[in-house]
Write a structure and sequence with these properties.
Blueprint: E1 4-10, H1 26-35, E2 40-44, H2 48-60, E3 64-69, H3 74-87, E4 92-94, H4 103-120, E5 124-127, H5 137-146, E6 152-154, H6 156-163, H7 171-181, E7 184-189, H8 207-227, E8 233-238, H9 258-287
Helix pairs in contact: 3-4, 5-7, 8-9
Protein backbone atom coordinates (compact mmCIF):
# COMPACT_ATOMS: atom_id res chain seq x y z
CA UNK A 1 0.00 0.00 0.00
CA UNK A 2 1.47 3.40 -0.96
CA UNK A 3 1.97 6.30 1.39
CA UNK A 4 -1.15 8.35 1.93
CA UNK A 5 -2.27 11.69 3.31
CA UNK A 6 -5.14 12.21 5.74
CA UNK A 7 -6.42 15.77 6.10
CA UNK A 8 -8.22 16.46 9.37
CA UNK A 9 -10.25 19.36 10.73
CA UNK A 10 -9.77 20.62 14.27
CA UNK A 11 -12.78 20.34 16.59
CA UNK A 12 -11.50 23.49 18.31
CA UNK A 13 -11.62 25.23 14.93
CA UNK A 14 -15.31 24.36 14.73
CA UNK A 15 -16.04 26.63 17.70
CA UNK A 16 -17.52 29.92 16.51
CA UNK A 17 -17.48 32.10 19.67
CA UNK A 18 -19.63 34.73 17.97
CA UNK A 19 -21.06 37.68 19.87
CA UNK A 20 -24.56 36.31 19.19
CA UNK A 21 -23.65 32.99 20.87
CA UNK A 22 -24.57 30.91 17.80
CA UNK A 23 -22.71 27.57 17.87
CA UNK A 24 -23.00 24.42 15.78
CA UNK A 25 -24.09 21.35 17.79
CA UNK A 26 -21.75 18.35 17.77
CA UNK A 27 -23.81 16.37 15.24
CA UNK A 28 -23.73 19.27 12.81
CA UNK A 29 -20.00 19.80 13.25
CA UNK A 30 -19.20 16.17 12.50
CA UNK A 31 -21.63 16.06 9.57
CA UNK A 32 -19.98 19.15 8.10
CA UNK A 33 -16.51 17.65 8.50
CA UNK A 34 -17.55 14.42 6.79
CA UNK A 35 -19.52 16.09 3.98
CA UNK A 36 -16.61 18.42 3.21
CA UNK A 37 -14.32 15.45 2.59
CA UNK A 38 -12.10 15.67 5.66
CA UNK A 39 -10.76 12.34 6.86
CA UNK A 40 -11.27 13.07 10.54
CA UNK A 41 -10.63 15.50 13.35
CA UNK A 42 -8.49 16.18 16.38
CA UNK A 43 -9.73 16.84 19.88
CA UNK A 44 -8.34 17.40 23.33
CA UNK A 45 -8.67 14.32 25.54
CA UNK A 46 -9.49 16.43 28.59
CA UNK A 47 -11.62 13.69 30.17
CA UNK A 48 -12.69 10.19 29.22
CA UNK A 49 -16.38 11.16 29.02
CA UNK A 50 -15.71 14.16 26.78
CA UNK A 51 -13.42 12.18 24.47
CA UNK A 52 -15.82 9.23 24.26
CA UNK A 53 -18.77 11.41 23.26
CA UNK A 54 -16.88 12.94 20.36
CA UNK A 55 -14.98 9.85 19.22
CA UNK A 56 -18.20 7.81 19.22
CA UNK A 57 -19.73 10.43 16.94
CA UNK A 58 -16.68 10.50 14.66
CA UNK A 59 -16.59 6.72 14.49
CA UNK A 60 -20.25 6.65 13.44
CA UNK A 61 -19.25 8.61 10.34
CA UNK A 62 -16.12 6.51 9.68
CA UNK A 63 -13.83 9.40 10.60
CA UNK A 64 -10.46 9.09 12.34
CA UNK A 65 -9.01 11.26 15.10
CA UNK A 66 -5.90 12.52 16.86
CA UNK A 67 -5.74 12.85 20.65
CA UNK A 68 -4.38 16.18 21.93
CA UNK A 69 -3.21 16.56 25.51
CA UNK A 70 -1.45 19.16 27.66
CA UNK A 71 0.66 17.22 30.18
CA UNK A 72 2.37 19.12 32.98
CA UNK A 73 4.11 15.95 34.18
CA UNK A 74 5.13 12.56 32.85
CA UNK A 75 2.23 10.88 34.66
CA UNK A 76 -0.30 13.23 33.03
CA UNK A 77 0.43 11.48 29.74
CA UNK A 78 -0.13 8.09 31.36
CA UNK A 79 -3.76 9.06 31.97
CA UNK A 80 -4.32 10.05 28.35
CA UNK A 81 -2.65 6.88 27.11
CA UNK A 82 -5.21 4.97 29.17
CA UNK A 83 -8.01 6.85 27.37
CA UNK A 84 -6.48 6.17 23.95
CA UNK A 85 -6.08 2.47 24.72
CA UNK A 86 -9.87 2.36 25.16
CA UNK A 87 -10.98 4.85 22.50
CA UNK A 88 -8.20 4.70 19.90
CA UNK A 89 -6.39 7.50 18.02
CA UNK A 90 -3.97 7.84 15.13
CA UNK A 91 -1.45 9.26 17.57
CA UNK A 92 -1.21 11.38 20.70
CA UNK A 93 -0.18 14.98 20.20
CA UNK A 94 1.63 16.33 23.27
CA UNK A 95 1.56 20.06 23.93
CA UNK A 96 4.04 20.17 26.84
CA UNK A 97 2.62 22.41 29.54
CA UNK A 98 6.02 22.85 31.15
CA UNK A 99 8.50 25.66 30.59
CA UNK A 100 11.98 24.45 31.56
CA UNK A 101 14.68 27.09 31.79
CA UNK A 102 17.43 24.74 30.64
CA UNK A 103 17.71 21.78 28.33
CA UNK A 104 18.74 19.62 31.29
CA UNK A 105 15.40 20.37 32.96
CA UNK A 106 13.50 19.40 29.80
CA UNK A 107 15.18 16.04 29.26
CA UNK A 108 13.39 14.05 32.04
CA UNK A 109 9.99 15.04 30.65
CA UNK A 110 10.87 14.00 27.11
CA UNK A 111 12.47 10.77 28.28
CA UNK A 112 9.40 9.94 30.37
CA UNK A 113 6.92 10.63 27.57
CA UNK A 114 8.98 8.62 25.10
CA UNK A 115 9.16 5.72 27.57
CA UNK A 116 5.37 5.69 27.96
CA UNK A 117 4.99 5.72 24.19
CA UNK A 118 7.29 2.71 23.80
CA UNK A 119 5.59 0.79 26.60
CA UNK A 120 2.09 1.39 25.23
CA UNK A 121 2.93 1.12 21.54
CA UNK A 122 1.02 4.37 20.92
CA UNK A 123 2.84 7.01 18.85
CA UNK A 124 3.43 10.21 20.83
CA UNK A 125 4.46 13.37 18.98
CA UNK A 126 5.52 16.66 20.58
CA UNK A 127 4.04 19.80 19.08
CA UNK A 128 5.85 23.06 18.44
CA UNK A 129 3.75 25.56 20.38
CA UNK A 130 4.14 28.91 22.16
CA UNK A 131 4.11 29.23 25.95
CA UNK A 132 5.18 25.61 26.27
CA UNK A 133 8.40 23.61 26.23
CA UNK A 134 8.77 24.13 22.47
CA UNK A 135 7.90 27.84 22.51
CA UNK A 136 11.29 28.84 21.09
CA UNK A 137 12.81 27.64 17.84
CA UNK A 138 16.39 27.53 19.15
CA UNK A 139 15.43 25.69 22.34
CA UNK A 140 13.54 23.15 20.22
CA UNK A 141 16.63 22.70 18.03
CA UNK A 142 18.61 21.99 21.19
CA UNK A 143 16.00 19.35 22.07
CA UNK A 144 16.70 17.77 18.69
CA UNK A 145 20.41 17.82 19.48
CA UNK A 146 19.65 15.80 22.63
CA UNK A 147 17.07 13.55 20.92
CA UNK A 148 17.94 13.33 17.19
CA UNK A 149 15.03 10.92 16.59
CA UNK A 150 12.46 13.05 18.45
CA UNK A 151 9.17 13.02 16.57
CA UNK A 152 7.45 16.39 16.28
CA UNK A 153 4.09 17.72 15.19
CA UNK A 154 4.93 20.83 13.22
CA UNK A 155 2.76 23.88 13.86
CA UNK A 156 5.11 26.37 12.23
CA UNK A 157 2.93 29.38 12.98
CA UNK A 158 4.06 29.44 16.61
CA UNK A 159 7.72 29.50 15.66
CA UNK A 160 7.18 32.39 13.24
CA UNK A 161 5.40 34.56 15.79
CA UNK A 162 7.56 33.61 18.75
CA UNK A 163 10.73 34.80 16.99
CA UNK A 164 9.07 37.41 14.74
CA UNK A 165 10.84 36.27 11.60
CA UNK A 166 11.59 39.13 9.29
CA UNK A 167 10.36 38.94 5.71
CA UNK A 168 11.95 38.02 3.34
CA UNK A 169 13.00 35.04 5.42
CA UNK A 170 16.74 34.69 5.97
CA UNK A 171 18.50 31.60 4.62
CA UNK A 172 19.62 30.76 8.15
CA UNK A 173 15.99 30.78 9.27
CA UNK A 174 15.01 28.51 6.39
CA UNK A 175 17.74 26.05 7.44
CA UNK A 176 16.44 26.05 11.02
CA UNK A 177 12.86 25.52 9.87
CA UNK A 178 13.92 22.74 7.53
CA UNK A 179 15.60 20.99 10.43
CA UNK A 180 12.33 21.20 12.38
CA UNK A 181 10.43 19.83 9.39
CA UNK A 182 12.92 16.98 9.01
CA UNK A 183 11.75 15.82 12.46
CA UNK A 184 8.02 16.28 11.81
CA UNK A 185 5.80 13.22 11.56
CA UNK A 186 2.59 15.27 11.41
CA UNK A 187 1.81 18.79 10.21
CA UNK A 188 -0.68 21.41 11.30
CA UNK A 189 -2.19 24.09 9.10
CA UNK A 190 -2.27 27.71 10.07
CA UNK A 191 -0.57 30.66 8.38
CA UNK A 192 1.09 33.28 10.55
CA UNK A 193 2.91 36.53 9.91
CA UNK A 194 5.63 37.83 12.18
CA UNK A 195 2.98 39.81 14.09
CA UNK A 196 -0.15 37.60 13.91
CA UNK A 197 -0.59 33.94 14.79
CA UNK A 198 -3.36 33.47 12.21
CA UNK A 199 -3.82 35.58 9.10
CA UNK A 200 -6.72 35.24 6.67
CA UNK A 201 -5.38 33.02 3.91
CA UNK A 202 -7.79 34.32 1.27
CA UNK A 203 -6.87 38.00 1.76
CA UNK A 204 -4.52 39.14 -1.04
CA UNK A 205 -2.31 41.15 1.34
CA UNK A 206 -1.32 37.89 3.05
CA UNK A 207 -0.37 35.99 -0.10
CA UNK A 208 3.38 36.18 0.56
CA UNK A 209 2.89 34.52 3.96
CA UNK A 210 0.63 31.84 2.46
CA UNK A 211 3.22 31.14 -0.23
CA UNK A 212 5.94 30.89 2.41
CA UNK A 213 4.00 28.33 4.44
CA UNK A 214 3.11 26.34 1.33
CA UNK A 215 6.82 26.17 0.48
CA UNK A 216 7.63 24.94 4.00
CA UNK A 217 4.82 22.37 3.86
CA UNK A 218 6.09 21.26 0.45
CA UNK A 219 9.51 20.68 2.02
CA UNK A 220 7.96 18.94 5.03
CA UNK A 221 5.87 16.55 2.93
CA UNK A 222 8.84 15.63 0.73
CA UNK A 223 11.03 15.11 3.80
CA UNK A 224 8.39 12.90 5.41
CA UNK A 225 7.95 10.82 2.24
CA UNK A 226 11.70 10.11 2.20
CA UNK A 227 11.80 9.10 5.88
CA UNK A 228 8.52 7.27 6.36
CA UNK A 229 7.77 3.63 5.49
CA UNK A 230 6.28 2.98 2.07
CA UNK A 231 2.83 2.28 3.56
CA UNK A 232 2.86 5.13 6.14
CA UNK A 233 0.17 7.78 6.64
CA UNK A 234 0.85 11.50 7.09
CA UNK A 235 -1.72 13.63 8.88
CA UNK A 236 -2.24 17.29 8.09
CA UNK A 237 -4.54 19.10 10.50
CA UNK A 238 -6.37 22.26 9.43
CA UNK A 239 -6.42 24.25 12.66
CA UNK A 240 -7.79 27.74 12.09
CA UNK A 241 -8.81 28.68 15.60
CA UNK A 242 -11.56 30.95 16.92
CA UNK A 243 -10.83 34.28 18.55
CA UNK A 244 -8.38 35.31 19.91
CA UNK A 245 -6.54 33.44 17.15
CA UNK A 246 -9.03 34.71 14.59
CA UNK A 247 -8.97 38.48 14.17
CA UNK A 248 -12.25 40.27 14.86
CA UNK A 249 -13.68 43.67 14.06
CA UNK A 250 -15.15 46.28 16.38
CA UNK A 251 -18.45 44.39 16.39
CA UNK A 252 -16.76 41.24 17.73
CA UNK A 253 -17.38 39.23 14.55
CA UNK A 254 -14.51 37.62 12.66
CA UNK A 255 -13.05 39.29 9.58
CA UNK A 256 -13.28 36.11 7.51
CA UNK A 257 -15.15 32.81 7.33
CA UNK A 258 -12.85 30.27 8.98
CA UNK A 259 -14.86 27.29 7.78
CA UNK A 260 -14.45 28.39 4.16
CA UNK A 261 -10.76 29.02 4.81
CA UNK A 262 -10.43 25.50 6.20
CA UNK A 263 -11.90 24.14 2.99
CA UNK A 264 -9.50 26.29 0.99
CA UNK A 265 -6.55 25.02 3.02
CA UNK A 266 -7.68 21.41 2.58
CA UNK A 267 -7.70 21.91 -1.18
CA UNK A 268 -4.27 23.57 -1.20
CA UNK A 269 -2.71 20.72 0.77
CA UNK A 270 -4.39 18.01 -1.30
CA UNK A 271 -3.14 19.71 -4.48
CA UNK A 272 0.36 19.98 -3.00
CA UNK A 273 0.40 16.27 -2.10
CA UNK A 274 -0.87 15.30 -5.55
CA UNK A 275 1.77 17.45 -7.24
CA UNK A 276 4.58 15.91 -5.19
CA UNK A 277 3.25 12.39 -5.78
CA UNK A 278 3.04 13.00 -9.53
CA UNK A 279 6.58 14.42 -9.68
CA UNK A 280 8.01 11.48 -7.76
CA UNK A 281 6.08 9.04 -9.91
CA UNK A 282 7.43 10.66 -13.10
CA UNK A 283 11.01 10.51 -11.80
CA UNK A 284 10.59 6.85 -10.87
CA UNK A 285 9.22 6.05 -14.33
CA UNK A 286 12.17 7.79 -16.01
CA UNK A 287 14.63 5.87 -13.87
CA UNK A 288 13.23 2.51 -14.90
CA UNK A 289 15.14 0.81 -17.78
Amino acid sequence: MPQKLLILQSMWAMERRRPDGLEWPLDEKVSMIRAAGFDGANLTFRSFEYAKEITDRLKADNLVWIADCFPASVDDLRTVIGYVEKLGALHINVLPLVRPYTLAEAIPYVEGWRRLSRESGIPVLIETHRNEMTTDLIFTLHLLDAFPDLQLTGDLSHLVVAREFQYPILEETHRWMHRILDSCWALQGRVASREQIQVQIAFPQHKHWVDLFLAWWDYGIRSWRRRAPKDATLTFLCELGPKEYAMTGADGFELSDRWQESLLMKGLIRDLWNKIEAEEGARAAQARP
